[in-house]
Amino acid sequence: MKRTAFDFELRRKLLHSFFGLFLISVLFYSGRKNLIILLSLLLLLGSIMVVWRVQGRKIPVADWFEETFERENVRFPGYGAFWYVVGTLLAALFLGASNEIAAAILTLALGDSAATVFGVRACHPLPYNRCKTVEGSLAFFVFSLPVCLFVGWVGVALAALTAIVEGLTLPVDDNLAVPVVAALFFLIL
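RE: above sequence
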């Protein structure tokens, strides 16, 4: 991958990480209810902006984010961000414990970011998904381990499970799959 492409992915994933950490801060400082309200508002406003952008309307803030952070050839403007908000909203709705919600968000924020940053320059493809790498999956696992601060040693199993899920070829975006699988993990546990 060219240096400029790597810089682009690094910039995207830094935003990805900081947004997740911001959501965790909202969760712990304002509570689950306010996190759900914030995510619902973001989903509503984001959906309106997506519709407007698809219609060709110019929205200065959305245009800047799209030019600065959006990958080429996405299904619709704001594709990854849309699924990020939907995934974290679902985790917040279905999990009652703040520490479990934080763990679900953290695996997405840090794990998914690390998988991309370390995976783009890696050279060992996963045997079950040639588009993803062993190095990316290992980075996902390692960078997801801080979830142990929220949920104890069960976080190791969560980090491993979500790293495997992120590496799979799924019909849904991993920004949706990772927090939903994390929520299911806690609901089954």
